[in-house]
Amino acid sequence: MSEPAALPASAALDHARLIASCRDEEERLELTARWILHEFDAYYVASRRIPDLARQAFERRDPVASLELSQERLALYSDRIERLGPEVKAAFPDVAGREDLWPRIEAQYLPWIEGRYAADLAYAFFHSVRRRIYQGEWKPVAYAFAGSGPARRRAGPDVRLAHPLDGRLDEATVDRVLAIPAFSVPFRDRAGDAALIAARVNDAFGGAIEGVEMINGGFFRRRSACLVGRLRLAGGGLAPLIIALVNGGDGIEADAVITREADAHNLFSSTLANFHVTNSYYHELSAFLHTIMPHRPLGLHYSTIGFNHVGKVAVMEELEREIADTGEVFRTAVGSRGTVAIGFATPSSDYNLKVIRDRPTAQYKWGEFEGIPSVLEKYKQVHSINRAGSMLDNIIYYNLKLDRAWFDPALLEELLHEASETVFLRGEEVVLKYLIVQRRMRPLPVFLETASRAQARTAIVNLGHCIKNNAAANLFNKDLDARNYGVSRFLKVYLYDYDALEPFTEVKIRSNADRVEGEEDIPDWYFEDGVVFLPEEIEAGLMLDDRELKRVFRAAHGDLLTVEYWQEVQDLLLAGRVPPAQFYPAECRLRD
After folding, report:
1. How far are the Cα atoms of 78, 80, 105, 162 from residue 129, in angstroms, in the given order?
2. Are residues 275 and 305 in contact, defined by beta-carbon separation less than 8 angstroms?
3. CA angle, corner 390, sides to 499 and 319, nearest 5?
4. Model's pTM, two decimal places?
């Protein structure tokens, strides 16, 4: 789909030279605003090309290119900010020392983005540049939308295609849905796919379907593509309608139909790489996704379609609204006290917040602590990679201020004492050099305390899948303690603590299985540098005391206790292979 509103081209000027040579301050302010807008335009045009390139990668059956596009898209924004901030500061040093200049630069900038669809993203870009210039200083910058407001809420066929129905989904309507992406590669059997999809949907909802509405664009990630919509049901209900497509070489084929909210959540989880969507109306896309997955906060829907910076603002607004509506305050997070991070949240929030301690607690077990920047780098790494469906994404805010009244006094005292390098009190404001925000999960040991036996067994099996998916994404959590894993409302298990992460391809897989019982000499691996992993010690590392759950884990994932399993995954990664992954249940598939 074409760009919703043409972005006016900025002249390719040597902004730094012009600003440095200009003696009139007002003109320097205008040139600075123009420079920032020029860079935003270049970023936005480049980012909107990526979804179409992802569609082409799907047509070529090139998942490596798709993953590279995901990493490129995430890096586009931050790389441009990292370069532009110091350049602006060098050309106009006063912008770092005089905070009074920024409102005047903003006054020049805002009229130029007024009325643009992406005005809020352009505004976020402006403040990201300011935040980068202030990096390392205690100067918070608001995370907020532009006061003028973007031109939002487009409707009609640009955003979604609506098809009224009389109780059942017919094959002709499905055929029109399959045509939405306008692939250059043919379907293997489009008519056959349409018949299978219609039959599957009618088996579940036949007689109650009043219409179907589909996003006018394709959703692309890794090896797969999706068509995303919703069924309008009698009585006003809604149900997801997501058609997963694969390209097997002899043509594109519909692989699965997803009509349950839980399965849609897993497919759109923030634990996976973002979707590339060939539709630019990100506000409407996020609002639409929220109607079929209402239990996921709206801010995270922005992130799952790649608009992470709009999502950051939306999440901060959600947190503020939660506190205003409930009257609750941030308290220490439920579960065990973190050795490296201080976790906190309001009791009913959808989010969990973290700050890294200045120094770990006495329970820290990984030798010398490499410092806060090292831990933050691991969280940033997780944000930029394929998280394989088993690791929570992170939102990291920098130079942020929050109201002191939002914090329980005991929590605030702990933050100021244990994280004094990054948390500071300024009057009635708490200033944070950074803040990590994640979707809230129940720590696995806390979940097991009240779970039914069936729920506990499901979670333990999903824990094994989580460990396997992380390895397939070239990530190894050397701290296998179950307290580092969380459980979602749909009993999926995710890793959410990253201070012990290592690249799996750098881990040395060893074993004591061949040692004779009673041998007292020290094994050879003990003297090796780096991270050494003994698969047979997984069960002990998880620190689960329940014998039945240990048996369940071993029955479902006994291969995790073998050197052979881990070595095979490592060999695939070292060979540059992209392991296949399945993100919906087998029963959603249309064919065996």
Report:
1. 10, 9, 12, 41
2. yes
3. 75
4. 0.78
Beta bridge partners of residue 330, listed in sequence order: 407
What digits encode the pLDDT tens for the residues 202-256?
999 988 999 999 999 999 987 889 999 999 999 899 999 999 999 987 999 999 9
Q: What is d(CA 53, CA 65) in angstroms, rounded to the nearest whole number? A: 9
| E strand intervals along 404-453 | 423-426, 429-439, 442-443
The predicted-structure confidence for 33-75, as pLDDT tens digits, reads as follows 999 999 999 999 999 999 999 999 999 998 778 878 877 887 8
User: Of the given ranges (148-157, 274-283, 376-385, 438-447), which has the lowest mean pLDDT?
Assistant: 148-157
Q: How confident is the model at residue 383 (pLDDT cuts 50, 70, 90)?
A: low
C-alpha pair distances (Å), 534 with each of 190, 485, 510: 49, 20, 5
Tokens 């914090």 belong to: 407
Measured from the Cβ of residue 466, the count of other Cβ atoms closer than 10 Å reads 24
What does the radius of gyration of the chain's CA atoms come to, in whole angstroms?
Answer: 26
Please give the Cα distance from 322 to 347 (Å, whole number): 10
Phi and psi dihedrals of 344, rounded to 5?
A: -155, 160
DSSP state of 294: T
The tokens describing 367, both together, are: 């030798």
Q: Return the H-helix or E-strand segment holding 436.
A: strand 429-439
CA 232 to chain centre: 29
The first and second tokens of residue 7, run together, are 């972005």
DSSP per-residue string spanning 227-242? EEEEEEETTS-EEEEE
If we measure between CA atoms, which residue out of 364, 307, 331, 373 comes closest to residue 120? 307
Confidence of residue 355 (pLDDT cuts 50, 70, 90): very high
Mean pLDDT of 123-143: 84
Average pLDDT taken over every residue of the chain: 86
137-151, 396-410, 456-470: which range is least confident on average? 137-151
Residue 377 pLDDT > 90: no
Q: Is the pLDDT of residue 400 over 70?
A: yes
- Whether the Cβ atoms of residue 334 and residue 442 lie closer than 8 Å to each other: yes
Report the alpha-carbon distance of residue 114 to residue 62 in Å, rounded: 39
Asked if residue 474 lies in contact with residue 573, where contact means CB atoms within 8 angstroms, the answer is yes
Alpha-carbon separation of residue 499 from 373, 474, 478 (angstroms) = 11, 16, 9
At residue 121, what is the residue type?
A: L
The catalytic site residues sit at 393
The whole-angstrom separation of Cα 499 and Cα 241 is 38
Among residues 75, 80, 90, the alpha carbon closest in space to that of 32 is found at 90
Longest dimension (CA), the chain: 83
Q: Which two tokens stand for residue 347?
A: 């009791």
Q: Which residue is listed with tokens 């607690």?
A: 361
